Amino acid sequence: GARHGALRAVRDRADGTSEVWCRKTVLLMNSSLSCLLIPRRRRQHIWLTPHELEIRLPEEQGHLVTNHTNHNSTSAAALRRVWNFQVHGTSPRLQHPCGVLDFEISMGRLTFHSFWKLALLGTGHDAFERPYEEQPGQWTLAVSACFGQLSSFEERTSRLLQQKALRPFLVPSSRPSLSRARRKSAPRSLGGLARGEVVVKPEFLQPSEVSRLAAWEERCAFSVERSEEKNEGEHCLAQGCVAYCGLWQMVQAARDDDLQLLLNVTDRASRLVNDLASERISAFEFAGKVWPHWATFQHYLPGGKHILHPDTDKGEHCMSLAVSFSTHGVDFTGGEIKIYECPPSVPDCGNRGRSRTHVPKEGGPFARKLLNGTLLPLRAGEWLWDGEPEAAYHVRQLLRPASGTAMVWLSETVHQVEPVQGGHRKSLFYWFTCKEPLQDAAFDWTGLAQRLRDPTAAREKRSGARPPREGQANCAGLSETWRRVRLRGLIGCQGGEEDGQGWPKKSQGPAEVGKLLRAQWIWHGRR
Question: Which residue ranges are recorded for the region named Disordered (predicted)?
C-alpha cells in the first residue's frame, strides 16, 4: 500500500498498555456511562490531537460521544494525554454472566480493540434476571456472579488515582485535602464526627416510610449468613440467623415507587452524613464529600450477632448509617450496638486492620499481656480483633435501635451487634465511600437517579423514545427497546389486561423472580 501513496492501518497490534477505564462496574441497562482512554506506547503516556484518535462502539451497544474539552486548553487541536468520552443508552453485548462493551480505538495508523465488562441490572433476559445454579446447591444471580469477576476495579482505580496527571480526569470535583500526617495531627476543634462518636437522629424516617420499607424487606430474597462471626449456637450455625438483602435483590423485589423512596432516603442520608463528615476521617483520604456506595436490608433472628469489627473492609468506606425498622424492647430484645474505644496497643484500629483470629479451642490456658504488664485471660475459642480480645476494648456507648431512628458513625469506628435474644431486628444499612470514582462500583446509583428523576436525560438516544414514568399504570405506548429491556420493576410499569405491546397479562417480573429466589434461599423463622 505504501508504494501507491496510501498508509495501511495496522490492526490488533497494540502493545496492550493503552487503557480504557469506566466509572461503573454495575450498570442499569440504557443508562449513561462515563469513560476515559489513556493512550500509551510501550507503557509510556503519549499525547494526541483529536484528528489522531478515534473511538468507536457498535451502534447496538450505545451512542458514543467524545468530549474534546481540554482541562488545560480551550483549543480542540491541543495535545491531550487523557480522553473523556460518554456512552448514552448503554446496552452491552450479553456474555453471561456479564455484559461487554466492545471498543475499537484508532491512534494514527494503529487500530486495536478494548473491552469493558459490566454486571447488568434490568436486562429483561431470564438468564440474567432469574437465579441459576452456579454449583450444585449454590444459587446466584448473574449480576452477583459477574461482579465477583470484577474485583480488581477498586485496586485499578486506586492505582490510576495515584498518578497526579490523571487524578483531575477521574475526580473532576476533587480539591486539595489534608495529608495523612496533617490529618493525624489535626486539632480536636475540627467539626464533624471522630472515631468512636455516634450521632443519633430520631424520626429520620416517617412511620409511613418505615412501613413501606418493612413491606419491601418482607418481599426481598435474602442471602443467609452461617459464619461464626454472625451466629451464636449450633442452631444458628446450621440454619443461619442473620440475613441480608443487598441492592441487587432489593431491585428484584421492588414495586411501584419503592426505588423512588430508596433514592429519597439515600439523598436524606447523604445530606446527614456529609454534614458530619470532616478531616477527622483518618481511614482514607477525605476530599470534602462522601458518596453512597452500598446499602442492604438486615434481618436478625434470635442468636444472630456480628462480632467486633469496623466497616472499612471494602469500597474505602468512611461513613456508616443504620436506620432501624424495629424498636429495642418492643420488637426484639438483645441486639444492642456496642461502640468501642480502641486500646493503645492498636493505634491504627479500624483503619486498615482487618485481622480476625480465634483463641484455640483446645489447650491453654491462654492470656494476653497488656502494655502495662497485666495478664488478660483469654476464653477458649473467643475472637481477637487485631490480636486483642473484646475485653481489651473499652465500651464507649451502648445503642438501642428504635424504629425510624438513624445512627451515624465513622466506618473506622469499631462496633459490635450483640446477640439477639428474641424477636426480629430489622434495619436498612448504608456505607458511604470517600472516593468518588467508587460511587458506582457496586450499584448504579447515578443511572437509577437519572432514570427516575430525569427522564429527559434518560431518553433513548437512537430512537428518541422516552422511558415510562414512575408509577405508570400500564405498558402501552412503550418503544420496542423499552419493552425488550423490561424495566418493569425499576420504573413501576405494570402490565394491564391488554397492554398491546407483547407483555404477558401476568408479569414474570421482579415479584415472581423474588418468589423464585425465596424458594431457593428461604431461611427459617421468616414466615
Answer: 454-474
Q: What secondary structure letter does DSSP report for 427? A: E
DSSP state of 108: T
Instruction: Return the pLDDT at 353.
Output: 53
Report pLDDT for 78. Answer: 64
Return the biggest CA–CA distance within the chain: 88
Contact in structure between 168 and 174 (CB atoms under 8 Å): yes
The pLDDT, as a whole number, for residue 260 is 95
- Identity at 146, one-letter amino acid code: C
Tens of pLDDT, residue by residue over 480-493, are: 333 333 333 343 34
Q: Are 223 and 212 in contact (CB under 8 A)?
A: no
The fraction of the chain above a pLDDT of 90, given in percent, is 49
DSSP strand pairing (63-67 vs 83-88): antiparallel
Tell me the average pLDDT across 373-398: 85
DSSP three-state, residue 40 = strand
3-state secondary structure at position 49: coil
Give how far Cα 227 sits from Cα of 384, 404, 449, Å: 16, 29, 35
Q: Is 215 helix (H, G, I), strand (E, B) or coil?
A: helix
Encode pLDDT of 320-353 as tens digits.
999 999 999 999 999 999 999 988 878 778 775 5
- How many residues appear in the chain? 527
For residue 97, is the peptide bond before it cis, meaning its omega torsion is within 30 degrees of 0? yes
129 in Cβ contact with 513 (< 8 Å) = yes
Q: Is 162 exposed, middle or buried, given 0-12, 13-18 or 19+ CB atoms closer than 10 A?
A: exposed
User: How far from the centroid of its chain's Cα atoms is residue 472's Cα?
Assistant: 28
Evaluate the CA torsion angle 306, 400, 269, 29 in order and state its sign: positive
Count CB neighbours of 59 within 10 A: 9
Q: Which residue has the cell 426484639?
A: 332
Reading the block at residue 449, the C-alpha cell is 437517579
DSSP-assigned states of every residue in 119-171: EEE----HHHHS-EEEETTEEE-HHHHHHHHTTTHHHHHHHHHTSTTTHHHH-
Distance CA 336, CA 400 (A): 5
φ/ψ (deg, to 5) at 406: -105, 145
The pLDDT of residue 394 is above 80: yes
Q: By C-alpha distance, which of 242, 397, 408, 422 is closest to 329? A: 422
> How far is it, in rounded angstroms, from Cα 264 to Cα 357?
40
Residues in Cβ contact with 495 at an 8 Å cutoff, skipping those fewer than 6 apart: 474, 475, 488, 503, 504, 505, 506, 507
**Whole-number average pLDDT of the chain:** 79
pTM (predicted TM-score): 0.79
